[in-house]
Design brief:
The structure is a homodimer of 261-residue chains. Chain A has 261 residues and is an alpha/beta fold. The first copy, chain A, folds into two domains: 76 residues, Orthogonal Bundle (Arc Repressor Mutant, subunit A); 111 residues, 3-Layer(aba) Sandwich (Rossmann fold), CATH 3.40.50.720. The first copy, chain A, is built from ten helices and ten strands. In chain A, a hairpin with a 2-residue loop joins β6 and β7. The first copy, chain A, is globular and about 60 Å long. Chains A and B meet through α1, α4, α5, α6 and β9 of A and α1, α4, α5, α6 and β9 of B. Chain B binds a DNA duplex (30 and 30 nucleotides) through α1, α3 and β2.
DNA sequence: ATGTCTTTGTGAACGCGTGCACAAAGATGG
DNA sequence: CCATCTTTGTGCACGCGTTCACAAAGACAT
């Protein structure tokens, strides 16, 4: 989900399809669970069920990494965990900086999944001077002025933006200028970044709207009638409802934002 | 991102492609911003730039909704806001229940974007008796025992799961049994749901891992050398690194979880 | 009215991702 | 050592989504 200005050709780095990369963490999670139960091997069928995917798809995904299975037996769990971890770059340490320590930012800082798998919260940044120095999840919050310093000192290449939408682009620019090349964006805005910088978007509002769409479809097919409402009626309803919509809209574009695409 | 057991054929309800539905909220956000600035019309080119997509794609997306543009002029902003809102089902009220009021659940409850666009937090649920009755974002937390009651009384059809992974499936089952047919899942688990129930997954850990993958690619192509490491060396490194990986893994599968797929 | 200019709406081609179905590979038992 | 059985790895076809490129439609000026 790179949202850059220029079109990025679905980064198939070294031949591994983007869709496959997106599923590797899923496999890894399932494999880790098996590993903890000391299960030595799994078949593609079993693992696929655990990961919630098709077994043929899983086998094809693994085939991009190499031939790590044994026919008639399945895959060695420990070995596969290692291979996928290495492929995802999880065998190294990834210092991360979180900008915007509001409700969401604090939740992220406290997120346990952060610490595991090689991700380490190197710094917390917030523009509010009242927060400066206060520890969140055991890490003292630093002021925005220290952003560049924090990024450079820790060799941070991954930044998380959890600020209000209005500040997101500016924060993004500063992160990128300081050397960050991957951004996880929770602010409800489209970020413009130069080539070579990856952006992934997480937007709760969008997720809910998509669910609402399907919910509406499920709830009433009888509403399909006024979908094809005549032009005259549509024009009539236009002003009335447009006002109504924007009226109770609230400050949507300014909330801290929450989720993925 | 329906993660059900059975394969769901990419729900193209009434002919609107899933990919288009996922972009509609993006357009809506851009249009709302224009509306607030009292801009009367936009061309597909301008709007596409604001939403960060290709203009041809945007036009095709809109063509699925109908012919709402005027050639030589563009699209009427207010009218389009209304049409998209209606298509997404945002003209009606959507009561939502949030289960699991930890760091993340609380952040979600406080999320401003919730209130706008027709989403209303109808109830907060948590298993911890210590939280029961305490207000979060102005809404008193109710105990898990009240889950079914809360869903039924409010006519909730959308549920948000922000519990630890271990509790997610059980909570999911109860939500579904109580009548919920759309679920936004923040727990790092694959949820099994019956047909007709939509699940969207939001998983911070996965997003970070995907970023790490690309980051690794960017950082070193010289590491490509040991990618094709000989079988012997691979086998040797196997145990060592496998142990290492699972050792500093931490309780990953149990954290409250955070994001999308 | 007529011509020009802008912008939409869409036909068609292309590429990626998915899933089927099967051959090859290896384990296992006799 | 051979036969059988299991499970991987993949060739192939299909369908969705994206993009190009252009004809049709309307605005606007003369």
């Amino acid at each position: 989900m790179a949202t850059g200005r220029t079109h990025r050709p679905a980064t198939r780095s070294r031949g591994i399809p983007e869709a496959t990369v997106a599923r590797l963490p899923l496999y890894l999670r399932a494999l880790t669970a098996l590993s903890e139960r000391s299960v030595p091997t799994v078949s593609s069928e079993e693992l696929a069920a655990a990961a919630g995917v098709n077994s043929a798809k899983l086998r094809k995904d693994f085939s991009y990494l190499g031939s790590y299975g044994t026919r008639g037996v399945g895959y060695d769990v420990e070995y596969l965990v290692y291979q996928i971890s290495r492929e995802l770059g999880l065998t190294q340490d990834w210092p991360v900086v979180i900008v915007g320590i509001g409700n969401l930012g604090a939740a992220l800082a406290n997120y346990g999944g952060f610490a595991s798998r090689g991700f380490r919260v190197a710094a917390l940044i917030d523009a509010d001077p009242a927060l400066t120095g206060k520890p969140v999840a055991g890490i003292p919050v630093r002021h925005s002025d220290d952003l560049e310093q924090a990024v450079r000192d820790n060799g941070v290449s991954i930044g998380v933006i959890a600020t209000p939408a209005g500040a997101a682009q500016q924060v993004c620019d500063r992160l990128v200028a300081a050397g960050v090349t991957s951004i996880l964006n929770f602010a409800p805005t489209v970020l413009n970044v130069p080539d070579g910088v990856d952006v992934r978007k997480v937007d709760l509002s969008i997720e809910l709207q998509i669910l609402a769409f399907h919910e509406q479809r499920k709830a009433g097919e009888e509403a399909a009638a006024d979908t094809a409402l005549p032009a005259a009626a549509a024009a009539a309803v236009r002003e009335q409802s447009a006002d109504q919509v924007s009226a109770d809209q609230g400050p949507d574009g300014d909330v801290p934002a929450v989720m993925p695409a």
